[in-house]
Amino acid sequence: MICLAVTLIARPGAEDRAAECFRKLTEHSRTEAGCIMYQFHRSTDDPRKFFVYEQYVDEAALQAHNNSSHYAHYVRGEFPTLVESADLVKYVPI
After folding, report:
1. Are 3 and 89 within 8 A, CB to CB?
2. Rounded to the nearest 10 degrees, how much is the dihedral formed by the CA atoms of 8, 93, 32, 14?
């Protein structure tokens, strides 16, 4: 299993558009065969701060996600205009 923990900061004024983009990406990502968990969260203290927790059955499933058309559309296409920063950490179970 592969886990990703990603903290994202939306650009000022783009918080709600980012949240909608994240919701759409979540809908698509959850339909992927190798996706176990895909859940975005929004900070209760900072409306610009988001966190996504992802789990995939293996590295191939993660690569399939990264190569998907919805990933290209949202992450490569829309994120640059909506997201100021992203901190991604990959984990494996122990």
Report:
1. no
2. -10
* Model confidence, pTM: 0.92
Cβ burial of 44 (10 Å; 0-12, 13-18, 19+) is: exposed
Q: What angle do CA 36, 39, 40 make, to 5 degrees?
A: 155
The CATH number of whichever domain residue 13 belongs to comes to: 3.30.70.100
CA distance 1 to 16: 32
Residue numbers of the domain that contains 64? 2-91
Domain count, the chain: 1
Q: What percent of the chain has pLDDT over 90?
A: 99
